[in-house]
């Protein structure tokens, strides 16, 4: 027996000397700061940058005074149980990326905490240059179960992401004055692939989803949006006229109530690129002004001519667009069609599939428009 125990002791000592006994994962609890909670938040992430757990304690609120960009996270759990209260309005934040940006791989963000914004101050100042409330640059990660209220600008952004899930997020940003909550897009994505946004609720003053350029394999499902600008795929990100690609984007099983727009594929003229494989399926639109829109002339009219890059004859190529199982009823505030297709004359829309569209007209609804759409002569919805 003595011989056996001695052998075990020697083996354990050898393993320890070789560093093969792994230390327990580190936990870093965020603390309050005497000056700026952005400092202690950044410190907690730095201390648990690799393989650790960052904890925002339940019931505690943190008040960052500066923008936070946390980089190089690896295998990090974030227990977001507390609240981050965003700073008061100041023009010093104009054009900043995000109040909190997390960058890294294999990040698991969860906990039921909240970002508490001061959006009303920004909206009353008519300032639409606020940073994102929360922005992510990540791979193989999950961000779930949190709230954002009164975001000064965009709520959640996914940029340069791959294999990332956003789910069970509640976003509520509504102005209490006559100053509208512009640029409060709920979930925006660009330069990303294999990204999911699902099982969430949005009440805001701009796009429920803003799917921007250089994306592929994007899935949006089971979203309930109220009062916003609907579900949008947007080809206006490239202000310098560079090529943009959108491939395999699906928005399914979702609802938009009292929204300005319903489902939208939009781009501004002269910006080259392709949208190939854009699907809207099983969408309920309740009291929506512009139910279905496909346009190469977004934000391009007498008031916004600066948005018209180069010429109106060309634009992003729209092909393999699927609008199926879309139901509900249109609002009656203006003379607007249920379906409005307005493509560029030299890059006509092709392979636009419409099926089982059951949207009840309002009292002012006019005939559907199908302009520069290949196959419009055989599309039954173009004759209504």
From TrEMBL:
* Superkingdom, taxonomy of origin: Eukaryota
Q: Where is the signal peptide?
A: 1-23
User: Which keywords belong to this entry?
Assistant: Cell wall biogenesis/degradation, Disulfide bond, Glycoprotein, Glycosidase, Hydrolase, Secreted, Signal
- Which biological process terms from the Gene Ontology are attached to this UniProt entry? carbohydrate metabolic process; cell wall organization
Intracellular or extracellular location(s): Secreted
**Gene3D superfamilies registered for this protein in UniProt:** Single-stranded right-handed beta-helix, Pectin lyase-like
What is the protein's major site of localization? secreted
Output the SUPFAM superfamilies linked to this UniProt entry: Pectin lyase-like
- What GO molecular function terms would the record report? polygalacturonase activity; rhamnogalacturonan alpha-L-rhamnopyranosyl-(1->4)-alpha-D-galactopyranosyluronide lyase activity
User: Could you list the residue ranges forming a coiled coil in this record?
Assistant: none
> Which Pfam families does the record match to this protein?
Glyco_hydro_28 (PF00295)
| Protein's UniProt name | Glycoside hydrolase family 28 protein
Q: Which organism is it from?
A: Mucor saturninus
